[in-house]
Structure formats: structure tokens, C-alpha cells
Design a protein that fits this description.
The protein has 546 residues and is of the alpha/beta class. 49% of the residues lie in helices and 10% in strands. The strands form three sheets. Strands 1-2-13-12-10-11 form a six-stranded mixed β-sheet, with helices on both faces. A five-stranded parallel β-sheet has the order 6-5-7-8-9, with helices on both faces. A two-stranded antiparallel ribbon has the order 3-4. The structure holds 6-O-phosphono-beta-D-fructofuranose.
């Protein structure tokens, strides 16, 4: 038994889970007309209704007790103070400092973090204005019209997700494109219509060693110099965002064109840093700052609200409840706002790379479920694809439904239709429909008894499927900042409660190392006999069939 499992709140939750599994939310709602009032939180920009979970007051109180027994508040303080809570990498975790007010000065390893952030904001703002106003010119004297961000994982998903979410706030001063895949099909497709004289590349890589990004950046550089016939053109068309200035300079990017990053910003939490440059270029620096301010607003809520009213804490504890205690293995993210179409992909990295681990802080194996697998799609598309599974499969998939009260792009009737589905689905997933109701309905429609006997079992929906409803006032930079920061803090709390090192990602290294070796073998046509016979045969087949 791990230390967590011997906590009294943990033991009590284990017992509660056994009892609650046999309950139905319909009964809980019938017994308590105050459920919504009890199990919802309203902030200025968003509302969370979590009443459609298999919880009651006792369960929530015990979950908050678990948060207390695991010292979430102390760890939160340590994180915001810049203590090195990323133990396996000996790093502070300070993405919150990137969106702070900078009233409080923070120091890490003798360096004044607040000053670094302030200086970076100034450098970013000057650069963004220069490009957007047409003062940054390409090698032939033309203004920049297109930005191509080259990066992957945290150096891609956050900025691209936000660019998509806020595309209606862009004044189209520049067009922003993203290259993340090393499959040449992507960069070819993106560069094909572009004019090298008017393109600015941002090479985004915290480490500046990521193979895919380096290869794409190299290809982009060749594309540019093939047009300019002059390597000095690189200075006018390439900037980098990285914590590894030396590598960026060795690659050929001029020192003045390098935006820094710091060890205390994790890749998947980095969109608030200069990694967010494409967002700022697209929307203007003021809108980027509004996004940061929105995230800061959530930071303040996270730090100050009591657990019982604290959105990230509640979201984390519900995930712990549904996953670790009730045994759900996956979690769906279902945005009903078209502009949030990349949110699920973004949260896959944020949640799964952070907490998808099986040893605790002390390196001991944990025998409880940690983070569920995160999946999903725009809700409306999902309804016509996989919601069948959500409603009737034997696997219960807790789901976050995310929608907006006001549409940013109103088209008569559309938003009401969209949101009717949004509300209907969480209701249906919770209430379900039993066989008696199915039979009565079919009878009322004049169906024969034989038909009813045949079809009734197939039409039963057991319901009792947990959902969280997150209703945003409208998608705008500040509200999006609220939403993303809420999930970031949820991930942090979940990691603390489950004793998971949320800020490292050792699990990505093994495959990277093997790929590097295989790349050499493919290049030299010397397939090593040390591979297992499956991998070796695949490599030989591939080489022979090329
Ligand atoms: O391989 C995973 C990963 O290290 C992520 O954690 C990170 O966001 C991504 O690769 C990109 O890393 P970098 O910004 O260093 O290129």
C-alpha cells in the first residue's frame, strides 16, 4: 500500500465508491432539488456545473479532505513561489510568472524572474509591432505577410490551439501557419503557395534539439536561400524561441533574433512565453496580453478560493474520483464551439504527458489509476460518430462539455441549435431511459407488441454517465486564458493528490533514442540483428520495398 492509500480520506473514498457505484444520479437529483446550487461554481467569465457526477455532499467533502491531507495548498504555494517542485529535473515550475502582474518580484537561482518576463514582453511587443505594421522587411524589401511557426508538442499545440480559438479576433495583418510534422507533406503543402520574400519563420523549440523541428527548419532555410541566393537573408526571415541559444545560433539564427525561454517553463505550459509569438503576431500584443491576463485571473482564483469553490481543485478531485476511485479509464473533452476544435488535442498533451505515469515521487510503483486517456472531438461531430458509445457502451466515459453563451460569429438560429444539443446531451447521458419508458413510448406510437419486444432492449439507455458542463460567456482572449489556466491547475492538483511528477516526461525518451538509431540504420542500409524479429523484418521489408 502506498502512503496515499493509507490516508483516512483515501480509505473513506474507497468505501464510498463501493456504495455510490450502485446509485443512480436520477435518484440523487430527485432527493435534492438544491443539487445545482450545491455543485456549481460561477466566475465572472465562466460557469462550471458538476452536479451531473456520481457525487453527494459527503463525497465532495471527503475529496476536499483528500486535497487537504495531501497538502495541495502547500504545494500550490511552493509552485507559485518558484520552489523546485519538478524534482526529477530539479526545476521550478513557473508558467504562472509569465502572466503575473509582476508586482511581486520572484527569484529563481539568483535570477530575477519578474525582470526577465518584463524584458521579454518588451522585446516581443516591439517585434510584433514591427512585423504587423510592415516595418520588418524581407530580404528584397517587401513586408512580411506570412508567419510559419515550426515546432512540435508544446511548441505547437498551445499556440495553434489558441490561434484557431481566437481567429475571429485577428485583423489579418499577417497569416499564421503551423508546421509540426516531419512528414514532408505538411511543409510542402504550407510553403507551396507562399512567397519566400514575404515569409517569416519562427523556429520554436525549448531544447532546440527536437529532430522533427530541426529537420523542418533546415528544409525551410533551404527553401528560403534557394530563392534569395544569399545566406544573409536568413537574418531577415528567421527568428527562434528557445532556452538553448547556442544551438539556435549554431543553426544560423542571429542572436538578436532569438527569444529566450527558461528551465522553469515546461513545454506544454509554454504558450504564455515567447512560444506564444505567433498568437501575438496574429492578434496584436494587446490581445496576447488579454489572454495572459485571463490566465492570471484564474491563477488568482486558484490561489485564493476555498477548495469548495475552487474550480481547478474541484475539476481535479472529480477526475480523481471518476478515475482512481470509480474506475473510469478515459475522459472525453467535447467542445461545442467550433473555434475550440484543437482543445482536445491540446489537453491530450497537457494531461497525458503530465500525469500519464505509474510511479510516485519516490519512484515507487503506484497500483491505482492516475490520469485517464483523454480523447474527444467537437461535440456536434462526435454526436454523429461516437456518442453511441458514450450513451450505451459498457464503459463509462466521464465527459467535459464546453460551450459558450454567446457566439462570436452569430448566424441566425445556428447557436440555439448547437446549444440545444449541448444541453440535451448532458441531460440524456445522466437520465438515460429505462425499458419501461421505452415500451410506453413505443406503445403510444402504435407499435406492435412483437416489434416492441424485439427493439426495446436496444433502445434502453442506462444513463448515470458523469459530465461536467463548462459554460463560457463567450470565446475571447481573456476567457480562453481562464479556461486553459483552469485545466493547467487541475492537472497540477491531480498530480499532487496522486503523487505523480507532473512536470517531467521521461516516457518520451525511449522511442526518440530508438528512432535515432533506426534512422542511422536506414541511411546506411545496415539493419542491426539486435532488433526483435518483428522490428527487424519490418525494417528489412521497408528497405527492400523502397
Ligand atoms: O517529446 C516530447 C516533447 O519534449 C514535449 O514535452 C515538448 O513539448 C515537445 O517535445 C517539443 O520540445 P521542444 O520544444 O524542445 O522542441
Amino acid at each position: 500500500m502506498t502512503a496515499r492509500q493509507s490516508l483516512s480520506s483515501w480509505k473513506k473514498l474507497t468505501q464510498l465508491a463501493q456504495q455510490k457505484k450502485s446509485q443512480h444520479m436520477n435518484t440523487l437529483f430527485a432527493q435534492d432539488s438544491e443539487r445545482f446550487a450545491k455543485f456549481s461554481v460561477e466566475l465572472p467569465k465562466m460557469l462550471l456545473d458538476y452536479s451531473k457526477n456520481l457525487i453527494d455532499s459527503e463525497t465532495m467533502a471527503t475529496l476536499f479532505e483528500l486535497a487537504k491531507e495531501t497538502h495541495v495548498a502547500d504545494w500550490r504555494e511552493k509552485m507559485f513561489a518558484g520552489e523546485k517542485i519538478n524534482k526529477t529535473e530539479n526545476r521550478a515550475v513557473l508558467h504562472t510568472a509569465l502572466r503575473g502582474s509582476n508586482e511581486k518580484s520572484l527569484t529563481v537561482d539568483g535570477e530575477n524572474v519578474s525582470e526577465h518576463v518584463e524584458a521579454q514582453w518588451q522585446k516581443m511587443e516591439a517585434f510584433v509591432n514591427k512585423v504587423r505594421q510592415g516595418h520588418w522587411l524581407g530580404y528584397s524589401g517587401k513586408r512580411i505577410t506570412d508567419i510559419v511557426n515550426i515546432g512540435v508538442g508544446g511548441s505547437n499545440l498551445g499556440p495553434q490551439m489558441v490561434t484557431e480559438a481566437l481567429k475571429h479576433y485577428s485583423d489579418n495583418s499577417v497569416n499564421v501557419h503551423y508546421v509540426s510534422n516531419v512528414d514532408g507533406a505538411q511543409i510542402v503543402e504550407i510553403l507551396r503557395p507562399l512567397d519566400p520574400e514575404k515569409v517569416l519563420f519562427i523556429v520554436s523549440s525549448k531544447t532546440f534539439t527536437t529532430t522533427e523541428t530541426m529537420m523542418n527548419a533546415g528544409t525551410a532555410m533551404k527553401w528560403l536561400t534557394a530563392s534569395s541566393f544569399d545566406e544573409t537573408a536568413v537574418g531577415k526571415h528567421f527568428v527562434a524561441v528557445t532556452a538553448n541559444k547556442e544551438n539556435a545560433m549554431n543553426f544560423g539564427i542571429e542572436a538578436k533574433n532569438i527569444f529566450g525561454m527558461w528551465d522553469w517553463v515546461g513545454g506544454r505550459f509554454s504558450l504564455w512565453s515567447a512560444i506564444g509569438l505567433p498568437i501575438a503576431l496574429d492578434l496584436g500584443f494587446d490581445q496576447f496580453k488579454a489572454l495572459l491576463d485571463g490566465a492570471h485571473e484564474m491563477d488568482e482564483h486558484f490561489v485564493n478560493a476555498p477548495f469548495e469553490q475552487n474550480m481547478p481543485v474541484i475539476m481535479a478531485m472529480l477526475s480523481v474520483w471518476n478515475t482512481t476511485f470509480l474506475g473510469s479509464q478515459s475522459q472525453a473533452i467535447l467542445p461545442y464551439d467550433q473555434t475550440l476544435h484543437m482543445l482536445t488535442a491540446y489537453l491530450q498533451q497537457a494531461e497525458m504527458e503530465s500525469n500519464g505515469k505509474s510511479v510516485n515521487w519516490h519512484g515507487e510503483a503506484v497500483n491505482y489509476a492516475t490520469v485517464p486517456s483523454i480523447w474527444g472531438e467537437l461535440g456536434i461531430n462526435g454526436q454523429h460518430a461516437f456518442y453511441q458509445y458514450l450513451h450505451q457502451s459498457n464503459n463509462v466515459v466521464p465527459a467535459d462539455f464546453i460551450g459558450s453563451v454567446a457566439s462570436v460569429t452569430p448566424v441566425k438560429g445556428h447557436h440555439e441549435t448547437l446549444m440545444s444539443n449541448f444541453f440535451a446531451q448532458t441531460q440524456a447521458l445522466m437520465t438515460g431511459v429505462n425499458e419501461e419508458q421505452v415500451r410506453a413510448d413505443l406503445k403510444a406510437k402504435g407499435r406492435t407488441d412483437a416489434y416492441i419486444d424485439m427493439v426495446a432492449p436496444h433502445k434502453v439507455h442506462k444513463g448515470n454517465r458523469p459530465t461536467n458542463t463548462i459554460l463560457l460567456k463567450r470565446i475571447d482572449p481573456a476567457t480562453l486564458g481562464n479556461l486553459i489556466a483552469m485545466y493547467e491547475h487541475k492537472i497540477f492538483v491531480q498530480g499532487i493528490v496522486l503523487q505523480i511528477c507532473s512536470f517531467d516526461q521521461w516516457g518520451v525518451e525511449l522511442g526518440k533514442g530508438l528512432a535515432a538509431n533506426i534512422q542511422k540504420e536506414l541511411a546506411s542500409d545496415q539493419i542491426s540483428a539486435e532488433h526483435d524479429c518483428s522490428t527487424m523484418s519490418l525494417l528489412n521489408y521497408y528497405q527492400a520495398a523502397k
